[in-house]
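Session log. Operator J.P. requested a structure for one protein chain; no other inputs attached. Running the standard single-chain path with token output.
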Amino acid sequence: MPTERRIGPARERDRLADAREDERAHAVIRNVRAARMVAGRADSAEECSLLLEMLGLEPAAERR
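Structure written below.
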């Protein structure tokens, strides 16, 4: 008898869902870092906004 455990469909879906969620979280972190880098290097708010738009990023919400 084989001793290997087979991964069932539900378990595989859970694993894939976890991997997708991890990738989304990493993408958010990358986007925040990119936005901060652009904001720190831009000469004006207009330039910052244009550069963020070129990267497909949105400016972060204002802090209170």
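Operator note: The helical segments are 9-41, 45-55.
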